[in-house]
Design goal:
This protein has 343 residues and is of the alpha/beta class. The protein has 10 helices and 10 strands. It has one domain: 3-Layer(aba) Sandwich (Arginase, Chain A). Helix 9 links the parallel strand 9 and strand 10. The termini are close together. Bound molecules: N-{4-[(3-aminopropyl)amino]butyl}acetamide and zinc ion (ZN). Pfam families: Hist_deacetyl (PF00850).
Length: 343
C-alpha cells in the first residue's frame, strides 16, 4: 500500500491546550506522525512518497472561502498585534448570540467565530502544515483515481472535527471530506465515509448532512459523555435529500472489541448496500485501551481484524489518518489496520 507523507506536519506544534482548567501540553504532537511513519517503514507495507500540490481549489470545494482566508492570515495578524505565543480563542457565540451575524473585525472575535473549542492552537507554521496535510490526502486520493485499490494518507494535523467554516478538536481542514468531494468531482456517483476515530466526526457529518451522494457512518464515544458533546447522536439520520445517509453509533465508555465490532458490522452492511464507488476511512486509533484522552478498550490485534472487515467490502479504500494519542502504540495500531486490510 502506498503511503503519502510530508515533513511539513512538524510546522504545526502547539504548545498547549486548555484541559481541566489548565494549559497543558498538546496531545496532538509531531511525534505521532513520526511513530506511524516509522512503523510503515519497519513493516515495509509499501513506498512512501511526498505529496503533490493540487492547490486551494479542492479545499475550497469543502471549506468557506472567508474561513480559509482567516486561517491563512491569522498568525501574521496575531504577530502584528505583538503576540508570539499560540492563538487560542476564549469567547464563543452560544445560543441567541448572533453566530450568523456580522463577523467581528477584531482578530480575537474572529477566532471565536471560526473555532469551537480551546484545544486547537494556531501557531506560526499551522497554515503550511494544514495545507500540506490536505495535499497529502489529495495525493493519496489521486493514486486511487489512477487505478490503485488503496492508499494511506498519513495526515497530520487531523481533520474530521473541522466543518465548512470552523476548526476545533486539533483539526483545521477536513481531509476526509476534501478527498470525498474530489472523488465526486472526478465522476464518482456515491462515496462512503467510515469514521472509526474515538470521537464523532462532527465536521464530516455537517458537510454532507443534506446529501445523498455521500454516506457517512461514525462509531464513537457517546456525545452525552464525550467530546465533541454537541453532535453524534443516533437520531441524526441526515436531512432533506440526505435523510437516511447518516449513521451514528454512539457507544458507552468502556466499550471493547465485542461492542465496537458489532457496530462496525452494522456500518459495513449499510455501506455494502449503498454500493459506493469509493470508501474513505477516517482512521483514528484513539479507540486504543491506553489512549490518554479516550475510554474505549480496543487492543492492538483488534486493529488487524478491523482492517480485514473493511477489506471484505471489496471497495477502493482511502485511509486518512485522524486521532490517536498513545504515541508509542499508534504506529502499531494504525499500520495493523492497513496490514489487516491487505491480508
Ligand atoms: N481532556 C481527534 O481525535 N478534547 N481530536 C480532548 C482531553 C479534544 C480529538 C479533551 C479531543 C479532540 C482528531
Ligand atoms: Zn479522536
Amino acid at each position: 500500500m502506498l503511503t503519502v507523507y510530508s515533513d511539513d506536519h512538524r510546522l504545526h506544534f502547539g504548545q498547549s491546550e486548555l484541559v481541566d482548567g489548565k494549559l497543558q501540553p498538546c496531545f496532538e504532537m509531531p511525534s505521532r506522525a513520526d511513530t506511524v511513519l516509522a512503523r510503515v517503514r519497519q513493516q515495509e507495507i509499501g513506498e512512501v512518497i511526498e505529496p503533490k500540490d493540487f492547490g486551494l481549489e479542492p479545499i475550497l470545494r469543502v471549506h468557506d472561502g472567508a474561513y480559509v482566508e482567516f486561517l491563512k492570515g491569522a498568525w501574521d495578524r496575531w504577530a502584528a498585534e505583538g503576540h508570539s505565543c499560540d492563538m487560542l480563542p476564549s469567547t464563543f457565540p452560544a445560543r441567541r448570540l448572533r453566530r450568523d451575524g456580522p463577523i467581528p473585525t477584531a482578530l480575537h472575535g474572529q477566532l471565536g467565530h471560526y473555532c469551537f473549542d480551546t484545544e486547537a492552537p494556531i501557531t506560526a507554521g499551522t497554515w503550511q502544515a494544514v495545507y500540506s496535510s490536505a495535499q497529502v490526502a489529495l495525493t493519496a486520493q489521486d493514486h486511487i483515481r489512477q487505478g490503485a485499490n488503496t492508499a494511506f494518507a498519513l495526515c497530520r494535523p487531523p481533520g474530521h472535527h473541522a466543518g465548512s467554516d470552523f476548526m476545533g478538536g486539533y483539526c483545521f481542514f477536513n481531509n476526509a471530506a476534501i478527498v470525498t468531494q474530489a472523488f465526486l468531482d472526478q465522476g464518482a456517483k456515491r462515496v462512503a465515509i467510515l469514521d472509526v476515530d474515538y470521537h464523532h466526526g462532527n465536521g464530516t457529518q455537517e458537510l454532507f448532512y443534506d446529501r445523498a451522494d455521500v454516506l457517512f457512518a461514525s462509531i464513537h464515544g457517546d456525545p452525552l459523555v464525550e467530546y465533541p458533546y454537541y453532535l453524534g447522536h443516533a437520531d441524526e439520520r441526515g436531512e432533506g435529500a440526505g435523510t437516511g445517509f447518516n449513521h451514528n453509533y454512539p457507544l458507552p465508555h468502556g466499550t471493547g472489541w465485542a461492542g465496537w465490532s458489532a457496530a462496525l458490522d452494522d456500518a459495513c452492511r449499510k455501506i455494502a448496500s449503498y454500493a459506493p464507488d469509493a470508501l474513505v476511512i477516517s482512521l483514528g486509533v484513539d479507540t486504543y485501551k491506553d489512549d490518554p484522552i479516550s475510554k474505549f478498550k480496543l487492543d492492538s490485534p483488534d486493529y488487524l481484524v478491523m482492517g480485514q472487515r473493511i477489506a471484505a467490502l471489496g471497495l477502493p479504500t482511502l485511509f486518512i489518518m485522524e486521532g490517536g494519542y498513545a504515541v508509542e502504540a499508534i504506529g502499531v495500531n494504525a499500520v495493523n489496520v492497513l496490514q489487516g486490510y491487505e491480508g
